[in-house]
Design brief:
By secondary structure, the chain is of the alpha/beta class. It has one domain: 3-Layer(aba) Sandwich (Rossmann fold), CATH 3.40.50.300. Helices cover 48% and strands 14% of the residues. The chain has seven helices and five strands; from the N terminus they run βαβααβαβααβα. It has a five-stranded parallel beta sheet, sandwiched between helices. It is globular, with a radius of gyration of 16 Å.
């Protein structure tokens, strides 16, 4: 199925979990920016916040290249990251021109998002994320993560499960990206 499903939103809103569920339901591979970033970082020593940002920029470069190749070859995928208007919209529009596209944006109240992020920082994640430094720069305004690329979009409340529910999100994506594959 030649389609692109963009899953975005601010950090700690449940993007990766939802992207994986959509990938399974739609039988599409999922490419998550954090997976790429962590893979790139493996051979290098841990650095500071600037180091993490440079790795993030490299991860986006890989993400865009792989996405273009998959879509140009007629494939489809779920693409997940904390895309921002300034950094990502132009490239997202460009890759969206290669296939029917749906955008799913995860959103929860800021207090819950911060609490989730603090819990994630306490549990620890891959060394590349430097969650403590991110918390020091915390911004309650998540509007920069609500990308608009001219494709059908759906905002999903991920506070307690999904609202709308997963089957409705899948139906939205299928409707937005065109005819469904009869094998699904």
């Amino acid at each position: 199925m030649n389609s692109l499903v963009v899953v975005g939103g601010a950090p700690a809103t449940g993007k990766t979990t939802l992207a994986m569920a959509l990938g399974k339901a739609l039988r599409l591979s999922v490419i998550a920016k954090d997976d790429v970033k962590e893979s790139i970082a493996e051979p290098f020593e841990t650095g500071d916040r600037e180091w993490s940002r440079r790795l993030g920029a490299s991860a986006y470069g890989v993400l865009w290249t792989v996405t273009r190749q998959i879509l140009s070859a007629g494939g489809g995928l779920v693409l997940e990251s904390n895309f921002t208007r300034a950094r990502s919209e132009a490239t997202l529009r460009e890759v969206a021109s290669l296939a029917p596209t749906a955008v799913v944006l995860c959103r929860i109240p800021d207090a819950a998002r911060r609490r989730r992020f603090e819990e994630r920082a306490e549990r620890g994640r891959h060394r590349v994320h430097l969650d403590g430094a991110y918390l020091e720069e915390w911004d309650a305004d998540d509007s920069e993560f609500l990308v608009d690329i001219g494709a059908p979009s759906l905002i999903v409340d991920t506070m307690d499960g999904y609202l709308p529910e997963l089957d409705r999100i899948v139906a939205f994506v299928r409707e937005a990206t065109g005819p469904t594959d009869p094998r699904r």
